[in-house]
Amino acid sequence: MIKTNKVFIQFFLCLFFLYLSTALYSQSMTASAVVAQTEVSKNALRDGNVQKAIETLEQSVLTAKEDAEKKDLYAVLASLQEQIGMFPEAQVSFNAAAALAQKGTEERQYRMLDAVRCALSCGDISSADFFLSTQLDKPLTDEISAKKKLYALWSWLVKSENKKDISSIVAVLKTYATLDEMNSVKPVIMLSLYEITNEVEWKNSLVTSYPDSPEAAIVSGSAKLFPSPFWYFSLSKAE
After folding, report:
1. Dihedrals φ, ψ of 206, to 5°?
2. How confident is the model at residue 14 (pLDDT cuts 50, 70, 90)?
3. What does the pLDDT read at residue 207?
4. Domain count, the chain
5. Exposure winner among 137, 184, 203, 228, fewest CB in 10 A?
6. Domain with 92 in it
């Protein structure tokens, strides 16, 4: 049964690393940014004070002399902001990182995808749609194209007004699940289909096809929920 009552829900999940890994490691970083990321993350984990780590990174951005270093520090800062639910701030930081990346590069597009994700997470759908249409009109890789399509579909889901709209979204997701070009996001597609339709076949397919994925861990109950809202969207079950 498709979940029909319109609600904007951000799942409380532990898999924030799923796309943050792309944000941080899809492109090479300056040595100083790598050191900063490692030390800040280590200290934040040890002290349990991510806010302090964020403040340190904000100061590092202000004092960075090279654009390349500043760009990478913005990306690290944005990832930490996103992890603790500071989605508007993370969106701004990812945008700043994108602006400092060279035009026409994969790195710039990955950073814009990060900004889109954060815009969706904080409900800023107009900004997400704007970024998708103006900054990502010509994806440079299959992975970027797949994520763009998935994020656009999530935007549509959030804006959906009735059961017909949701049925159309489900139909597109099912098509995506069969396309090789969407391989990089298929576990997320299957999770989305399971959450929207509550059809067990998608859960089973996910666990069978991608047993080691974070999404499979979520549906199988072997992953604990992270106590901070993330960027997945769904609908409440119909009575």
Report:
1. -65, -50
2. very low
3. 96
4. 1
5. 137
6. 5-236
- pLDDT surpassing 60 at residue 137: yes
Amino acid letter, residue 82 = E
What single-letter DSSP state applies at residue 182?
G
User: How far is 11 from 4, CA to CA, in rounded Å?
Assistant: 17
**Strand ranges in the chain using DSSP code E only, listed in sequence order:** 5-10, 233-236
- CATH number, domain with residue 74: 1.25.40
b vs e for 183-214, b when ≥16 Cβ sit within 10 Å of the residue's Cβ? ebbbbbbbbbbbbbbeeeebbebbbeebeebb
The proportion of the chain whose per-residue pLDDT surpasses 90, expressed as a percent, equals 46
Strand partners, 233: 10
**Rounded to whole angstroms, what are the CA distances from 238 to 104, 159, 192?**
45, 18, 17
Q: What's the length of the chain?
A: 239
pLDDT of residue 53: 81
Instruction: Pull the structure tokens for residue 204.
Output: 């089973």
Query: Is residue 48 pLDDT above 80, yes or no?
Result: no
Cα 117 to Cα 230: distance, rounded to the nearest angstrom: 9
* Contact predicate 11/234, CB 8 Å: yes
Spell 131-153 as b/e; 16+ CB within 10 A means b.
bbeebbeebeeebbbbbbbbbbb
**pLDDT, average across residues 39-46:** 61
* Confidence (pTM): 0.78
Task: Write down the number of H helices and E strands in the chain.
Answer: 12, 2
